[in-house]
Amino acid sequence: MAFKTRQVRRAFSLVEVVLAIAICSFSLIAILGLFTTGLQSTRDSEQQIQAANLASTLISMRMASPTNTFSSLPNFAIPASAMTKGFASAYTGNVYVGSDGQTNTIGNAVYRISCSAGTNSLTGTGTAQVYIMLSWPPQATATTAAGRYEIITDIPLR
Fold this sequence. Notes:
Blueprint: H1 14-64, E1 88-89, E2 95-97, E3 103-104, E4 111-118, E5 127-136, E6 147-156
Antiparallel strand pairs: 1-4, 2-3, 2-4, 4-5, 5-6
C-alpha cells in the first residue's frame, strides 16, 4: 500500500509581509528626507558659487582698470571714484546689483551689494583696499539674508 505524502508549501505569513512593508516604508521616508536636504544644500551651494564668481569678476575688472570709469558699463558696481579716497563705503543707502555686475533696481537685481573701497594706512600709497559683500535675496537686509558672500582684497592703483 502506497502512502501519499502530503507536500507542505511554505509561504510568508501576513505578519511577515506587514513587517516587510513597514521596514521598506520607514527606509523610503528616511531616504526622501535626505533627498530634500541634499537638494537644498545644492541650491545653497550654487548661489554661493554664483556670488563668488560675480565678486571675482567685479574685482578683476576693477584691477584691470582701477581708476577709470567704464563708459560701456555706466553703472559698474565698484565706482572708480571710491578707489582713490579714504577707505569708506562706496554707496549711500541700499544698492542692488544684477548678474552683469551693474547696479540695478531691486526688481531686476540678483544681489544686494555692500562695497567699501579706498586707501588706508594699512595698504600704503599706491594701493586701494576693496571690500564687497553680496547678499541674497536682494529684498532682505544683510542680517536677514538667506546667504551672503564677502571678499576683501588690495588693488594696485598704478
